Amino acid sequence: MTTIAVLIGKDFEDSEYSEPARAFRNAGCRLVHLGLKKGETVTGKKHATPVQIDMEVDSAGPDDFDALLIPGGYSPDNLRAHKGPVRFVKHFMERDKPVFAICHGPQLLISAGKLQGRKATGWKSLLCDMKYAGADYLDKEVVVDGNLVTSRRPSDIPAFVDACLKMLGLAGKKAA
Amino acid sequence: MTTIAVLIGKDFEDSEYSEPARAFRNAGCRLVHLGLKKGETVTGKKHATPVQIDMEVDSAGPDDFDALLIPGGYSPDNLRAHKGPVRFVKHFMERDKPVFAICHGPQLLISAGKLQGRKATGWKSLLCDMKYAGADYLDKEVVVDGNLVTSRRPSDIPAFVDACLKMLGLAGKKAA
User: Mean pLDDT over all residues of chain B?
Assistant: First the structure.
């Protein structure tokens, strides 16, 4: 079974978590929610969608997961103020495992120092930050570069999910 | 009378607006709230402090003001997704007029391309972004570099306000 780490904190963009999560589960994946505190419930910024943290990110290693999802909203900025989430993203990128980041998700990639020379996209307010961090910013609904899948905003979710499932070899699959 | 532009949008950090605003008014300053839409009320992210926008930022010119205050929270990221606020900050910095930015406030300075070679500070999640943008990031409660005053977080507000009032030549002044 494909196991996906979801790195998530307070004030995430609801749909950027819930829609990919539903698609991944429908394709038979298991999700593990990583955050700052095990057992804590974090909520989305628009609709207060609740997500319970399964595991403290400091206790998680990239080898336990097949891919990493980073939803947007204010969650990535809240998480990257702490060392654990930044270290986890850095290690995940160094393993060359699939990383899926949407909207503000690339903020964690910047803090992990992993956008240098990478083709990527993200929410328009991050354009400068991503360019300064060395990314080749493309204004497209989804950008795939090696292990990295990025998108700009909620309206890109269908293309984002398609690209993620394709990278996992699960395009068109439904759970039994 | 000293007139201060306050560039503000939704989900600002309440105290980073209300405490400097009170201090500036107590020192006899007039505040003009600039935002995306005249007449709109934007609210703080913690206590829903209401602020009514006096003037659309696209209609405002830096020559109409003596200084610029940029409170933090999620407001700077929301504003910098639009051209008007970024252009206003750029022009203000190019006039070498006093600019006061706290916490996430420097995000607008990054998007305006005005941190290159400047000593500055800001909320810890911005450390990478500010360094990549060319700033000399200092982990201090307040950093003064030429026309620019920056601070890291709400607990820095007293030092921030003192440095701002000093730059305006209003230290120790009270309104009549």
Answer: 96
